[in-house]
Amino acid sequence: MRWRKVFETNEYGKIDRIIWYDQESVIISGQGRRARSLRYADGLEVWQLAATTTNTNSNQDTVAKHCQVIKNRYDPGTIHILSDDLLWSVSSYGEMLWSIEIPIKSTLKNLFLLSTSQYVIVGSLDSNSNQLQVTYYSKQDGQQAFSSSLPWSFNAKDSLNKCSTMNNLILCSNNEELSIITIPTTTDDTNVKTRHIKASSKIEQIRILYESTTRSVILIKSDNGETKIYQFNKKESTSEWDFNELNIQMKSNSFISIATDKNLAGQQILEASANDQKLNFHVSTINEQTLTNTRSYSVELPENMGEIEYLAYSVVKNTQLVTLRMQDGSLLVIKLADNGAELILHRDEALSSIISVETFDLSLSITQMRIEEEFGGTGMFSMFTKRISSQVSQLISFFLRLLDLFTHGNRNRDYLDKQAALVRDEFNLNKILIVVTSVGKVFGILTQSGGILWKNFFPNFAPFEHFNAVHVPLFHIRSAAHYTHEPLASIVYRDRNSLHDTHIRTFNPYTGDLENNLTTSSLPYHVKRVFLSTQAVDEFCKVLLFVDTNNKIHTYPSVPLSRALSTTIPTYIYLFDKSEQAFVGYYLSIDENDQKTSTNLKEVWRVSFQNEEVINIHTRLSSDRVHSAGIVLGDRSVLYKYTNPNLIAVVTEGIDYQKVPFVNIYLLDTVTGSVKLSHTHKRVKSPVHIVLSENWIVYTYYNQRYRRYEAVSSSLFEGEAQYNYSTFSSFDPIEPVIQSKAYILPYGVNAIQVTTTEKGITSRDIIMATPNGMLIEIPWILFDPRRPLDLTPMDREEGLIMYTPEIMVNFESVINYYKYVYNIRGIHTVATGLESTSIVFAYGLDLFFTRVFPSRIFDQLKDDFDFMIIGWSTVAFVVGSFVAKRFASIHQTKKAWK
Amino acid sequence: MSNQYPTNANSVRLTPSRRKWFIDLQIRKNERLPVTTNENSLTTTTVTTTTQLNNNNNNNLLLSPIGYNEQRVSDVITQDDDEHLLARRSWDIALQPIKQLPMNIVLAWMAGNSFSLMSIMIVVMLFMKPIQAIFSLSSAFASLEQEGLVGNIWLHKIMYFLGNLTHLALALYKCQSMGLLPTYNSDWIAFADQQTQMETSLGGMIYS
After folding, report:
1. Which residues of B touch A626 (CB under 8 A)?
2. Are residues A264 and A301 in the same domain?
3. Could you say which of A59, A601, A886, B122 would form a disulfide bridge with B111 (CB–CB 3.0 to 4.6 Å)?
4. CB contact set of A292 (below 8 Å; sequence gap of 6+)
């Protein structure tokens, strides 16, 4: 990859259209409000122009903005942009030619933008009179020349979806008919002509394949799969067009792209279709009305990539190149040559749309397994025989390995290396990441190299919606702790075509092989929510629990609920209903002898929100461990933590009676439905990023009044005494003491997460992804809500730092150094076998993986630890002591003789 | 307990007779041969016997080597006096730890409550000395028994033991003031087990 340019995450980064030139391309983004030019050679932004807008009420952009961008065919260096009521023109040199604002009228909506050699034509729909008002503006200075109107039978929404423009034509599909409306281009010619093309069934799509001043090709796709291609030719010295159908036999799933080349007489038309793991191409030359020189190519793909989503065909210096985007997000570049097609580039662009991440430990090596087995026995004699037998087998395998080394040498070294990469290391630092992307491709990534181990594409994949993001449940069905059984992971997703169907796919995270016994695509109920059982059932496998729309709970695979859930500890289930804006808590009672596989839920509590909308729910990480029950204060007394594992954080948003926007944060106990903490922030904007761990919560938001990002940290304490030191129940009458402090962040926040360690002894660090590409590691003690305003010796004894509102970020705490990662959407942290070490995986547009040491490396030797010096000095000391002993005895003897 | 044989001047004066023989190096002519060595002794326990006549002085000088004296010093110790001394000495040993206590208090106070090499060494010493002394209790009084102390010295031993206990108490107090004793809840919090959960909860947002 030569260069890359990351655009803004806000609306100005959304690309509306790219216009390609020879040396550079002009990119229109932000609903036609930004134009910029990138040079191909080095990716430099040559110029950027912003539309001059006078209307400042841009906050009220609840109405979807509409934007049209065209390149003037008669003057290729000029681009006309219509953004709602703003019409402006830029030249490809970065010069703003003119900019005008079309008078706003609520009934008038600007829809179409056309251009001729003299005029820029705007077609606006007057919804009162159902007339299309066509206004002509001068191409040179944007002066309004004249206007006319014509009857119009579509409404505004239909016109946008079903119509497209081409030169001076507006093409609109109306069920089985395509209307071609010719807009006159000069002042003297005013009659509007409408012609029709009949199709066999309802027209689904019109695509313009090729457009020039004299010639155009369009594609009409009907919903019965029939595709027709029409060629338009301009009549001499008029503004009218002739059209004729090109007879191409096309498959229903094929894509068409057209390329022109100066060396070629006409255009080349490429038809591409995907068929399992094969791509088929047909290239023909358009000759007046027929196609000639048809040639077929086919290329074998390395994996199943689904259908074609985008196709572009180009001829560069006599090389025919096909660029494709597949359904699984892959970017393919295929070279068509005389000796056949060749895949020259394949990139998994799906990796930039990761939505769920889980980590699995690697499998134990054979020797580690033997050790597990060796100490697995119970009886004295069996343990003894096991030890002997395993040690004998170790000896045998050692000799076999030696023999292998001598006979084969390094021949199967690669294979061994690959095997070694899949084996757990001594400290369990290397893992395998299972990532699910929003397009339905699942990857297994090795953490030590970042290499993709396997990938699976599920074609009819659709993720679940989770507030304004998407979400795919990914579960550890069987963890890697049971060395005799392979681990299993499950994903649950909906069908792309029928959203009521739920699919379950279970696979081995090491190989990606599907486990067919635990894979289904037909559940007899409509799923409301899925979660993992708390107890393993058969062969250490956990089962999936589904809540259906009748509030019944089911297990998959079907096992009695009494085996999937604990019968001694009551289970509570909470569900958030978005339409009612209410949390409902259910009680699930299971009898030990009950063999039912499904049961009804009993509602026990309900929390509903009024005048505020829940925008996010945040739960703590399942791997969250609390090591100590309290904090030791300076006077050596204990402040006990309120560690309620049933708490969830709820973020709501709303506007109060003074029209001030606010954000509320609640900590909700999901067993009792009681609110343990509530904070209100006025003049604050979401997104709110939350970390909930142990007994504290840290969240960030944007403060609109001071125009800065802020973080609030709160801790919950039980107080100086513990209510019950051995058990915790949400029904205990504990009123947690809350301490809070707010801090100012130096950067914005894209994502936030806390480090995880195995036992939770190591102090916590907050990992924060910033919009400028940094991942910052901030110790939690900087966010500690107990930071005092004036430091007493007692506080100093406790190790508290004096409160300062600003959180200072050292550049040393940027854990990705200069490898900036952009548009991070989530951070995943996992514990390793070493207590000091936590794994951090940040994903978004880029992926970043590292290990962090929140309390420094206290259980490892330093990197610069010199084993040689220690070893040799030990040897020297041993030798020296023997020598000294000898000398001493000689000396003693001599002394005795004296 | 280390100085089982007191060497101060007072006790030397009190036990002048504990010699079996002596060599007189100061030989002068025409000197009176029988010499009582300690003229300043308060109790004349020396009995001088003349085995030679005065007129044999010259012969005697020639016969005997330098430092030889014909005189004999008797080794008669009065029993009751010895017992008195032993009692004093045993009380000395028994009360010795208590006598050392003020010095140790000063030492402990000087060490301060902060953690440093010195203060830790002093605390260790405060613990080690009395413990060692208690374990070597019998050896502390062993010399007395060797010297033929008859009768009971258990009271002395108890006193000695109690004295060492005061040292231990001082060491403990020192630890307490330094914060080394696990007397607070906070010292045991790391060993507390995790609370067991009485409920589990599952759930989330309904998929629409």
Report:
1. 194
2. yes
3. B122
4. A284, A285
Which of A348, A383, A409 represents a domain boundary (last residue)? A348
Residues in chain B with CB shorter than 8 Å from the CB of A724 are: 195
Nearest-CA distance from A653 to chain B in Å?
17
The answer to whether residue A301 is domain-embedded is yes
Encode chain B (208 residues) as per-residue pLDDT tens digits.
Answer: 444 444 444 444 444 556 677 776 765 555 555 544 444 444 444 444 444 444 455 555 556 677 777 777 666 656 667 778 878 888 888 888 889 899 999 988 888 888 888 888 988 999 999 999 888 888 887 777 777 666 677 888 888 899 999 999 999 999 888 888 888 888 888 888 888 888 888 888 888 7
Mean pLDDT for the stretch of residues A610-622: 90
Q: Which one of B113, B197, B201, B208 would you mutate to disrupt binding with A, by most A Cβ within 10 Å of its Cβ?
A: B201
Inter-chain CB proximity B186 and A619 less than 8 Å: no
What's the residue count for chain A?
Answer: 898
Of the candidates A564, A562, A560, which has an alpha carbon nearest to the alpha carbon of residue A544?
A564
Torsional sign, CA A301, A307, A310, A311: positive
Three-state secondary structure readout of A799-816: CCCCCCCECCCCHHHECC
Give me the domain span that covers residue A307: 247-348
Q: Do residues A255 and A295 share a domain?
A: yes
Does A572 contact B195 at a Cβ distance shorter than 8 Å? Answer: no
CA–CA separation, A455 vs A475, rounded Å? 17
A629 with B194: Cβ contact below 8 A = yes
- Residues A335, A382 within the same domain: no
**Alpha carbon of B182: minimum distance to chain A alpha carbons (Å):** 10
Give backbone dihedrals phi and psi of B160, rounded to 5 degrees, phi first: -60, -45
Of the three residues A297, A314, A348, the one that is the final residue of a domain is A348
Q: CA A116 to CA A139: how far, in whole Å?
A: 8
Strand A119-126 to strand A131-138: parallel, antiparallel, or no bridges (unpaired)? antiparallel
**Amino acid occupying residue A308:** I
Q: Which of A667, A107, A587 is nearest to B203 (CA)?
A: A587
* Closest approach of B172 to chain A, Cα-based (Å): 18
Judging contacts by C-beta atoms under 8 Å, the chain B residues touching residue A647 are none
CB neighbour list of residue A370: distance below 8 Å, 6 or more residues apart: A390, A393, A394
Q: Are A167 and A213 in contact (CB under 8 A)?
A: yes
Test A629 with B201 for CB contact under 8 angstroms: no
**CB-CB under 8 Å, A529 with B204:** yes
Shared domain for A281 and A344, answered yes or no, is: yes
Instruction: For residue A235, count CB atoms less than 10 angstroms from its CB and return exposed for 0-12, middle for 13-18, buried for 19 or more.
Output: exposed
How many domains does one find in chain A?
3
CA–CA gap between residue A66 and residue A57 (Å, rounded): 16
Q: Are residues A319 and A382 in the same domain?
A: no
Q: Are residues A270 and A320 in the same domain?
A: yes
Contact with chain A for residue B30, Cβ under 8 A: no
A756-807: per-residue pLDDT in tens? 998 888 999 999 999 989 999 999 999 999 999 998 988 888 889 999 999 9
Residue corresponding to tokens 């181990």: A453
DSSP string for A274-329 = EETTEEEEEEEEEETTEEEEEEEEEEE-SS---SEEEEEEEEETTEEEEEEEETTS
Examine the domain organization and report whether A343 and A285 are in the same domain: yes
The kind and range of the H/E element at B129 are helix B117-135
For A333-368, write each residue's pLDDT tens digit.
Answer: 999 888 888 888 899 999 999 999 999 988 877 767
pTM (two decimals): 0.82
Residues of B in contact with A569 (CB under 8 A): 197-200
Residue A259 pLDDT greater than 70, yes or no: yes
In a domain, A309, yes or no: yes
In this structure, the number of other CB atoms found within 10 A of the CB of residue B138 comes to 9
